[in-house]
Amino acid sequence: MKGAKLDIAKWRRPDPATAPSQAKAAGLYMIATMSKHAAEAKGCSDAMMMDYRGYVAEATGANIFFVKDGEVHTPKPDAFLNGLTRQTVIGMLRDRQIKVHERHIMPEELEGFQQCWLTGTAAEVTPVGQIGDYSFEVGALTREVAEAYERLVRA
What pTM does this model have? Predict the structure, then answer.
């Protein structure tokens, strides 16, 4: 399993004062749809989006997580939907005593991350092998989280 290949979207998630970013609002899907189609045209399966400030936000329909030195980093959900699968995975990680940092992530930080995965209702836990020019391993933590989530939802 080498993980999904993502492009970096040219469109950004809007300022929460512009649109209801904490809701599944139909108007917010247009930029995601346009970004996903552009990524697919480049041979990718999805795109990573930035928020209105230029911080890493999420993929077009899934939240994103990164691993560095055994700790997990995920964007602070202050400009996009704080998904239920995201919340579940964070709880699972904390139950296992794995440090989770919910914070603003700058795009240039991607170079230092070792693993990456997406979470969402449809994505569940999907490993990511590449975002733009940045590569990630489908490492042990990514596989463990995917398997643990699978066990939880199929129990």
Answer: 0.94
